[in-house]
Design goal:
alpha+beta; Immunoglobulin-like; TolA/TonB C-terminal domain; five-stranded mixed β-sheet; four-stranded antiparallel β-sheet; 8 helices; globular
């Protein structure tokens, strides 16, 4: 119950952010279907995402797969591996609607990028909206923590160290000398059991992101009960890539149906070992999210 309340509070805060951000700027309304394509779509990117994927333009290219295809252009502010980013529609009268979580590609600092997404909120984009808001909670939290730490360091002024008394120098040196232990100490990598959201080198599926998507598509077994009832959609699965590249802690973060959820968990858990993520050159545990698509033809 506490978790549900926190989730609701977080969502309400996000909605408030949309209203404040777009309130005085969302004057352009995108209407779909349009008379002609491509159509320029207004957008706003939060600071956490923008420090990596600096989005400069979004175009609607037209209908695709029951929704609409959007092409995203930009320039990399910093290098990064691929990452799952949230996008939301801002609707008239300050209402919001989740577009979905999309995989933003790996980027190299200073180089341009472009990629396509297809709207997937219940399979359809809204008939009219005022733009996209691009947001990632993990990246925003990391940026906020960095800014807070920098502010705290700026406020802290360390006093100059006191000079030791001459007669105590030898005694202090002897007292502070530690006798080396003969027991083997755990390495820094072994000590670090934290699960990171973003690291210097993100984990990678063998062969890259496209190979990962191909693996999921080939190995998904569409549940019969879902097929018979015409149930389709996209399940988001979050998991941890361990230091040895194995997959653990799989959990559904965006559900469609219990049978589809179960199959999504199965196929993600069955993935081969990844190349683990690294922080300061050492393998660490990293949280990752992947979409598993279920489409009926």
């Amino acid at each position: 119950m506490k978790l549900m309340k926190k989730t609701i509070v977080a969502f309400v805060s996000l909605v408030w952010l949309f209203i404040v951000t777009f309130g005085s700027h969302a004057q352009t309304t995108v209407k779909l279907p349009a008379k002609a394509y491509p159509v320029k779509v207004p957008h706003k990117t939060d600071a956490g995402v923008d420090r990596y994927w600096h989005v400069t333009q979004i175009l609607c290219l037209g209908p695709s797969s029951g929704g609409y295809k959007f092409r995203i252009y930009g320039k990399a502010a910093q290098s990064s591996s691929s990452h799952t980013i949230n996008m939301m529609y801002l609707l008239p009268n300050n209402r919001v609607q989740i577009a979905g979580a999309y995989i933003f590609p790996a980027i190299t600092e200073g180089k341009s990028f472009k990629f396509d997404i297809v709207s997937a909120f219940k399979g359809y984009a809204p008939s009219s909206f005022n733009g996209f808001f691009i947001h990632d909670e993990a990246l925003a939290r990391i940026l906020e923590n960095e800014r807070r730490e920098a502010a705290q360091k700026a406020e802290t002024v360390s006093p100059p160290p006191a000079l030791p008394e001459i007669q105590n120098i030898v005694e202090d040196a002897i007292a502070d000398t530690e006798i080396p232990s003969t027991e083997q100490q755990p390495s820094e990598t072994e000590k670090d059991e934290n699960i990171y959201n973003i690291v210097e080198q993100m984990p990678e599926f063998p062969g890259g992101l496209s190979a990962c998507m191909s693996y999921l598509a080939r190995n998904v077994k569409y549940p019969t009960i879902a097929m018979e009832n015409g149930i389709q959609g996209r399940v988001l699965v979050q998991f941890c890539v361990e230091k040895d590249g194995s997959i653990s802690n799989t959990v559904v973060t965006q559900s469609v149906d219990s049978s589809l959820d179960k199959e999504a968990l199965r196929v993600v858990s069955s993935m081969p070992k990844w190349t683990p993520g690294k922080q300061k050159g050492k393998p660490v545990r990293v949280k990752y999210t992947l979409p598993v698509h279920f489409r009926l033809k």
